UniProtKB/TrEMBL annotation:
Keywords: Methyltransferase, Transferase. The keyword Transferase applies. This is TrmH family RNA methyltransferase. One of its GO terms (cellular component) is cytosol. The keyword Nucleotide-binding does not apply. It comes from the Bacteria. Pfam families: SpoU_methylase. The lineage of its organism: Bacteria, Pseudomonadati, Bacteroidota, Bacteroidia, Bacteroidales. PANTHER family: 23S RRNA (GUANOSINE-2'-O-)-METHYLTRANSFERASE RLMB (PTHR46429:SF1). Residues 25-168 form the tRNA/rRNA methyltransferase SpoU type domain. One of its GO terms (biological process) is RNA processing.
Amino acid sequence: MRKLKITELNRLTVDEFKKADKLPLAVVLDEVRSLHNIGSVFRTSDAFLVDCIYLCGITATPPHPEMHKTALGAEDTVEWKYKKNTLDAVQELHDQGFTVLAIEQVEGSTLLDQLELDADKKYAIVMGNEVKGVQQEVVNACDGCVEIPQYGTKHSLNVSVTTGIILWEFANKLMRFRQ
C-alpha cells in the first residue's frame, strides 16, 4: 500500500465547499471553553459537511491563532454564528425546523447505536462544556438526548472526541438518504 499524496485526495476547495450541498445538520457548542476543542469541532464539521456551528456563551469565535492550530482553516469554510445564550440558538434552530438533540447522559437517553434518523428532518446536536456538560435548561429545551455507550471506568469523553463520534454516526446515516 502506498500513502496517497494530498493532491490525490480530491478534496473540495474552499469555494467548492461553500457551494456544496451540506448535510441537514448543525452543531451547537454550549459554553465550550477550550480553543483546541472548538478548532477540532470546526475541522470535524468540515469533514462531514455540517451546515452550521453555533458558538454559544463563553465559546470563543474565530479568528483566533490557538483555534486555528486544530481547525487548520475549517473556521473559514464552515458557516458559524454566535449566540450569547444557548437557549436562543436552540430556539432559532427549532424555528428553522430542526430537531435538536443534546449529547448528554440523562434518564431516557437514546443510545447512539440505536438512533434512527428521518430522511425528511434536519438535526442539530448540542455539545456541552468540558466539565459541566450541556446545561440542564438547554437539555430541557431539546427534543431528546443521545448518549454514546461506554464500557470502561470513565463516564465521559473529551467534547471534541464525542463530537467526532456523533458527527460520524449522523453523517453516515444522513449520507445513506442521498444514495
